[in-house]
Each structure stands twice: as C-alpha cells, then as structure tokens.
Amino acid sequence: MHRQSVSMVDISDKEDIVRVAVASGRIKLKSSTVEKIKSGTIKKGDVLRCAETAAILAVKKTPDMIPLCHPISIEGVTVEFSIDEGEGDIKAAVSVKSVGKTGVEMDALHGVSVALLTIWDMVKSVEKDETGNYPHTWIEEIRVERKEKRGLLS
To answer: What pTM does this model have?
Structure first.
C-alpha cells in the first residue's frame, strides 16, 4: 500500500503582516422567497442577521473544519449582503482581516459558504416544491475576490 504523508506547512520563518481576503458567492431563490426575506416574514426569523452571525462564527472556526488550515488571529470580519430582486438572488461577501504569517482566504471562503448555507436552511420551507425538492434554489460563484497583504507599518 502506498502512503502519502500529510503535514501542516511550516510558516515559522514568515513575518507577521496585515492580511485581508474577500470572498463572495450567491444563492439563487424564488422571487417570492426574496420578498419574504426583505419583509421579515420568514418563520425562522431574520435571515440575513442570522446568516451574518453564522459567517462570523464560521470564520473563527475555519481551522476546526479544514484539517491543515492554520489557526490564526482574526482581527476583523465584515459580512455584506446585496439583494438582486430581478434575478431572485442574494450575494454574500465576507471580508476577513488578520495580522499574521499566513493568508485568510480559506477563512473568508468558509464564512461565505456558511452564510449561504444558513440562508438556504432558513428559507427551505418556502423554497421546496410539492415533491420536497429545490428546483429553484442553488448556491453558485463562491470565489476569492481579492487578497491583500502589507507590512505592519504601511
């Protein structure tokens, strides 16, 4: 049997710098669901506020979910949502800032993914069709929009 070793990357020789990553994605919903989110009539509560909290918690727990991801000091997390009523979708963007030796893109990606999953969970009762499936619901375009790094004095 062939075994391949797995190891966490050694970042001890890298210097601490300011690191920022922004990730985004979108969830496609029925227009009637988007209207219910906007009007605050989803039975489970305030969908976007709950998704914001879930994103922040996910960012903080990224190393617990992604096995070789370094635990890092999170200095700030910003979560933003934009609603496109014409398309029936909600875009989520998560920005993560850290001062450390490694990037924060996985943390931002994890945050946006969990935000979108939380939206789906909160609206699934109104998104299901008569067979219990979700033909009008999907998550797409999850990606890193931008990464930045700069010295501590810049």
So the answer is: 0.92
